[in-house]
Design a protein that fits this description.
The structure is a homodimer of 343-residue chains. With 343 residues, chain A is α/β, with parallel strands linked by helices. Chain A contains twelve helices and twelve strands. At the A-B interface, helix 4, helix 5, strand 2, helix 6 and helix 10 of A face helix 4, helix 5, strand 2, helix 6 and helix 10 of B.
Chain lengths: 343, 343
């Protein structure tokens, strides 16, 4: 069914149908209702491409999600969609693989949809000013920020936890329970990204408490994958470092580490504690339940949109919000050696 | 930077730049390379919306994924993207929530992108002929099929497992190990969807082996959620049915069921076995490892695109492919009562 068929069926002109669909005031309520009833009945789909080409400015906010298998993002997307619509905007979602270029995807989406602004859920930590010139609308980095690039603070907004501080907090918690030989299971120590930042936090916590850094306690797995984390934990066991606790980058890596330890007869938490950062729902269902620093995902999403709309609507400066994670106690961490299990 | 700036910088006309970008033959190699170098350097983004409006037929295949938190789909999407591009097409991905209307999303995408065909990854099982008239291009249901609607076989393609047969196989495996009191943890028994089909398979397996159906052994959780599965398992324990094994709809529900059993002092598999259908990577990392019927996700994705492209390119009839799941042995199932654990 085309717009012409609908016009014919309603006994009105094509332009009247168009005006009714687009909510223009110059159509009587009676005619509008008649047209919309036929549109609904016929399940006619307006040609949005044509409509958007004609418009010079849309009410659309783009959300680019990098990493399709990240459960943590799925929950944030739902909230973000809700907030965007509640603010009178329309959301367009683009989901890309973790190896893809979110900036280019955002730029294409911006042209296609005449976006007003972009929220990036996940991305690189080292944007340069030059490469971001490709974007002509305000953008906000959500769940991460630009720590290694040369973007200026006024060029973008960001909402994230402080990754170094979160790692510091996790490792300091282990130290407070008497752990001294603390291993770090990370993707890489110098990836100019989240893994590097959390490595720094790990080392800073050790230094703060006068514990010498031992490279044998750090295993680089090369990725955030579970299979790699499983093998990385085996490597750690082979090194016989005498570690009593492991700090991991993410819940998924921690789940694989716990499995690896258990499969090799090393009990969690009796023989080795495991702590992570993320707090995904799944890690409430592991055995033992994971002790982890929960990222305030919902709050990050809500603040991300707030910061973005402030920029879109020209209210004040670009903001950079750092939120604090919360220690979620599970059963995967206990006091070192003779202590009591924590739950 | 606009196309005019690029033309100016290269000393050619705008239409020459346009022809070079679009791979038209009427531009010399030398000029084309010069233009593309400037385009690359400037990170100029062509206006795809305008381009697509002019085209009457694209080379684009739409993939509509329903359910953003389904890990099982994430892996299929990666393969599907690869196969589509390898076949000379371009993929557009639309990710929607599990409560949203995939048919309408597909129809909008079809208009916007002038799609050649649509692959639905996840959707309803009860499409009517009338509501699918909204789609003007071939479509394939991937990982599910139309069991309850009135669509004719020639109207669409499908690739899935036989859900009833898969449930039958899982429950028969438990019966072969001596289990007689087998519970079913399902979303609903009559949702005209996957849960209903798998319920039927559960009942058929019991009937086949002369085991009377006991409604007390069936818990309807109302969803595929983990929290609901955890509480459903508690409900089952409260009923004191004397069950020695649980059949669950999905790996995620099984992971929550195992946690619930463990938290209530019921050991898996010593006191109660748990089996599921899905075979997501995560369930290799649970304690114990999940015994589950692994869906051939990669093969479903590959076949789904093959069936779709056969329809798009006019080769033969719409096909309906049923693939078989594979029993993946973990540690969550053992022989009933006095038997030995299986791994």
């Amino acid at each position: 069914m085309t717009i012409k068929d609908i016009a014919k069926q309603c006994g009105v002109s094509v332009s009247t149908v168009s005006r009714a669909i687009n909510g223009r005031p110059d159509v009587s309520d009676e005619v509008r209702q008649k047209i919309l009833a036929v549109v609904e009945e016929s399940r006619f789909i307006p040609n949005y491409t044509a409509r958007e080409l004609v418009r010079t400015r849309s009410d659309t906010i783009g959300v680019v999600v990098r990493g399709t298998s990240n459960l943590f993002f799925a929950d944030i997307v739902r909230l973000v969609a809700h907030v965007i619509e509640g603010s009178g905007y329309r959301m367009i979602l683009r989901q890309i693989g973790s190896g893809e270029d979110e900036v280019k995807s955002g730029a294409i989406l911006e042209r296609e949809k005449k976006l007003r602004g972009i929220l990036f859920l996940g991305g690189r930590f080292d944007y340069t000013r030059r490469e971001m010139e490709i974007l002509n609308v305000p953008f906000v980095c959500c769940t991460y920020t630009n720590c290694f690039g040369d973007l200026r603070e006024g060029d973008f907004g960001s909402v994230s936890i402080d990754d170094e501080a979160a790692a510091f907090q996790a490792v300091e918690y282990l130290i407070s329970l008497g752990h001294r030989r603390i291993a770090a299971l990370v993707a890489a120590c110098n990836d100019r990204s989240i893994s590097e930042l959390r490595c720094q936090g790990y080392r800073a916590a050790l230094a703060e408490h006068g514990i010498p850094f031992d490279p044998a306690l750090v295993v680089e797995t090369g990725s955030f994958g579970m299979a790699e984390a499983y093998r990385g934990t085996e490597e750690l066991l082979r090194r016989e470092t005498g570690c009593t606790a492991i700090f991991t980058l993410s819940d998924m890596m921690a789940i694989a580490a716990i499995k690896s330890l258990t499969d090799h007869g090393c009990r969690v938490p009796e023989d080795c504690s495991v702590i992570a950062i993320d707090g995904i729902p799944m890690s409430n269902y592991t055995i033992p339940t994971l002790t982890t620093l929960e990222q305030p995902g919902q709050e990050m999403g809500r603040e991300g949109i707030r910061v973005l709309l402030d920029m879109v609507e020209g209210r004040g400066e670009a903001q950079h919000i750092r939120l604090k994670p919360t220690l979620r106690l599970g059963g995967s961490v206990r006091r070192a050696s003779s202590g009591e299990p924590r739950s």
